[in-house]
Amino acid sequence: MIHKLLPAQINVLLVILGLTGCAQWNYQDLSDPSRDVWQKPQGVVEKLSIARGARVADLGAGGGYFTWHLAKAVGARGTVYAVDTKESSINMIIKEMVARGTPNVRPVRAEPHDPRLPEPVDLVFSCDGYHDMNDRVDYFRSLASSLRPGGRVAILDFHPRGFFSSMFVHRTAKEEVRREMEAAGYQLLNDYDVVDSQHFQVFAKAER
Ligand SMILES: C[S@@+](CC[C@H](N)C(=O)[O-])C[C@H]1O[C@@H](n2cnc3c(N)ncnc32)[C@H](O)[C@@H]1O
Question: For residue 77, what pLDDT is reported?
Fold first, then answer.
């Protein structure tokens, strides 16, 4: 239901939820197919040119909205780690895995400061989770050791547009993401414009 709203209406809803202390995402709503209209998940995943057989971490996977698109991209020989700190997210991923019969997805219950990835990956993908993370420079600096050679980090987050968004809602500006990622030892590879309401940047470890 939430994702049937326009991004501006979501802003207002988030402010109300935040002010009433009940800012709890409903993973069912996040996974509503009507979200595809503005989120354009296929367009986002296509830009990443993910190789068949790749290992991908969906960091802050939530209800798995992007997880299933990423699982399709890596194919049967690849693996998508659906990483989240919340038990409710992991439970929904497991339920969906069973319903969809998707063998190449592995849920990972993370700690706020540690994604607990079982092996290095080719791509860390994060949509709408970056702003939730603490100590991001330290977090992404240590995450570099979980990237395979040539590994990338793709980050999408909402633009902090408008009064409500900048005053009350915790979102991260594109320039802030870039500054923090550079401080964490990465360089910008791509800056895509696929989703009107979100910035979409891809990083790799900076060459020394
Ligand atoms: C708004 S949801 C987005 C879910 C999904 N990526 C999507 O686009 O529908 C953000 C998710 O990030 C998770 N999260 C926040 N901090 C995290 C962290 N440090 N490590 C892993 N997941 C985290 C939250 O539990 C939540 O499920």
Answer: 97
Show the domains of the chain with their CATH numbers.
2-205 (3.40.50.150)
Cα of 17 from ligand 1 centre, angstroms: 17
Between the alpha carbon of residue 133 and those of residues 1, 26, 38, 45, 46, the distances in Å are 25, 19, 24, 22, 26
Mean local confidence (pLDDT), 31-58: 97
Segment 86-113, tens digit of pLDDT = 999 999 999 999 999 999 999 999 999 9
- CB distance 178 to 66 below 8 Å: no
Q: Is the CB of 25 under 6 A from ligand 1?
A: yes
Ligand 1 site, residue 107, Cβ cutoff 6 A:
no
| 185 Cα to the center of ligand 1, angstroms | 23
Task: Give residue 60 CA to ligand 1 midpoint distance, Å.
Answer: 3
Identify any residues that bridge with 108 across adjacent strands, giving them in sequence order.
Answer: 83
| Per-residue confidence (pLDDT) for residue 208, from 0 to 100 | 74
Cβ–ligand 1 distance for 61 under 6 Å, the answer yes
What pLDDT is stored for residue 23 in this prediction?
39
